[in-house]
Specification:
Elements (H helix, E strand, L loop, with lengths): L5 E3 L2 E6 L3 E6 L10 H7 L3 E6 L13 H15 L4 E6 L1 H12 L4 E7 L19 H9 L10 H11 L2 H16 L13 E6 L7 H10 L3 E6 L6 H4 L1 H22 L1
Parallel strand pairs: 3-4, 3-5, 5-6, 6-7, 7-8
Antiparallel strand pairs: 1-2, 2-4
Helix pairs in contact: 1-9, 2-3, 4-5
């Protein structure tokens, strides 16, 4: 995957394809590569937008779910996006939820996969240990049903991030902010059609989290994928894309019918 990163003001992002906007928000250790298959599949019919969230670049005071939501809101304002299908994985899902609760007017639909916001077990009882490669390797492996997907390249990248003292402080700040920012009491305010795609073997945001989102978000539908962990769009991209495509095209058709 070789997409051109664009830079406008303080925002770094990619924008591929034409049509209705599909915006993707990555998680705490996420990157463009997480969405490679999704971008390739959907850029044929949608304008696929991926802002690079400044997870480790904001000042410590704004290194929170709320700080990231404000960044996304400013990005949407600067770019003039409207009628957005907003997708978030893990922490990115949490940011998407915070955004749709504060600024629902430009969001057409919401897609969550392995989202925090109710419960997550990302670090267990511990936070990243500097200089402990095996610790980082194990944490990367539990993201997936198949631990082999935690490649050496991925583990090396995470190790480099968590070996920087200031970055570790910011990771901890974000993790604690996610725990504090429980949105359970607010989810009944979400009126947008919502798609929940969950790995049946997710141990970071386990299946009961997906069921709870489904119960609390009125207009939502939930799909589980077997032999799949916390990042379905990476681990089972074809199945993930099929579910998402059906959802998005159904929404397009319902709009056309009512027009």
């Amino acid at each position: 995957m070789d997409y051109q990163l664009r830079q406008i003001d303080k925002f770094t992002f990619i924008e591929e394809g034409e049509g209705e906007t599909l915006m993707l928000l990555h998680g705490l250790f996420g990157a463009l590569s997480n969405f490679a298959d999704l971008i390739e599949h959907f850029k044929k019919e949608f304008k696929v937008v991926v802002p690079i969230l400044p997870l480790l670049d904001l000042d410590i005071f704004h290194t929170t779910v709320s700080g990231l939501e404000k960044y996304v809101q400013k990005f949407i304002e600067v770019r003039g996006y409207d009628n957005i299908n907003l997708l978030g994985n893990s922490l990115g899902g949490h940011v998407a939820l915070a955004h749709v609760l504060k600024h629902p007017e430009k969001i057409k639909s919401l897609i969550l996969t392995g989202s925090s916001g109710l419960f997550e077990n990302g670090m267990g009882d511990s936070y990243p240990k500097r200089g402990d490669y095996e610790f980082i390797k194990k944490k990367a492996e539990i993201t997936f049903y198949d631990p082999a997907l935690a490649t050496k390249e991925l583990v090396d990248e995470l190790f480099e991030i968590t070996n920087n003292r200031m970055k570790v402080i910011k990771i901890i700040s974000l993790a604690k902010s996610a725990i504090r920012s429980n949105l359970g009491d607010e989810l009944n305010q979400i009126k947008q059609p919502t798609l929940l795609i969950w790995g049946n073997n997710d141990i970071i945001t386990p299946p009961f989290v997906g069921r709870e989102f489904n119960k609390l978000i009125e207009n939502s539908e939930l799909y589980f994928i077997d032999k799949c962990g916390h990042a379905p769009m990476m681990e089972v991209p074809h199945e993930f894309n099929d579910i998402l495509y059906t959802f998005l095209t159904k929404k397009k058709q319902s709009v056309a019918t009512s027009a």
